[in-house]
UniProtKB/TrEMBL annotation:
Modified residues (4-aspartylphosphate): 56
GO biological process, one term: regulation of DNA-templated transcription
Single annotated GO MF: transcription cis-regulatory region binding
Every Response regulatory domain range: 5-122
SMART domains assigned to the protein according to its UniProt record, in alphabetical order: REC (SM00448), Trans_reg_C (SM00862)
Organism: uncultured Sulfurovum sp
Name used for this protein in its record: Two-component response regulator
PANTHER family (UniProt xref): REGULATOR OF RPOS, TWO-COMPONENT RESPONSE REGULATOR ORR33
GO cellular component term, pick one: cytosol
Amino acid sequence: MTKKKILIIEDESVIALNLKEVLIDLGYEPCGIAPSRYKTLALLEKGIKPDLILMDIYLKGTVTGIELAKELKNIIPDIPVIFLTANSEISTIKQATSCYAYGYLIKPVKERELQANIELALQKSSLDVKTKEELKSMENVAKILEHTLEESGNEKSTLITLKYGYVFCIETKILYLKEEMVNLTVKERDLVALLCQQKGSYVSREQIEHSIWVNEPAGEAAFRSLMFRVRNKLHKDLIVNRNNIGYKIARNPSSSRDS
């Protein structure tokens, strides 16, 4: 099994070397030690590709670990960072969380605590990367589908690009995902169409009931059943609601095909 490579960014040489030995004992591969921003960038330029970074917050020089972590987010965006510091003040922790750190350890670091944080960070980072790739793939498919439908010659169709790779055709009331139609009942289609037509605004429960159950009474059980069925068929965050305001559908901000 390939050992996970860990880059140590720490300006205290004794602490850095101790971390290196601990990481080796835990079965990881320390792939470099850097005391500053300059040394860190130099290692990356040489081709060092870590799976995780242990970052001291207070580094020598004008650039702090937090600032360096934000810079590295643009260079190696998918590499998780765990911060190390002797400072446990809440203000420092809040600064660290602002750059999406995957962990925060107070020095002196305990071996088992270090290992637990590393494993959790690696696992969460892997899931985050997978989710991001899936969303990107779904959005690309949505763009291809939109173009395909346009090329079919149905100029009356109004396509609305939603989040998570969904595309909804107002004209046909068909919802697509990954070039496949989502199987919806008539009322479920009516609900999605109503939410799409609101251009990102919330729709109250009363408006939904009046629009979908035009000539028939709609009790709370029927409304909840409809909403439950639709949400179970779609991404869990596609339809969102706010108490006492209503419901809306998550649209892709880049979509410009609204009518």
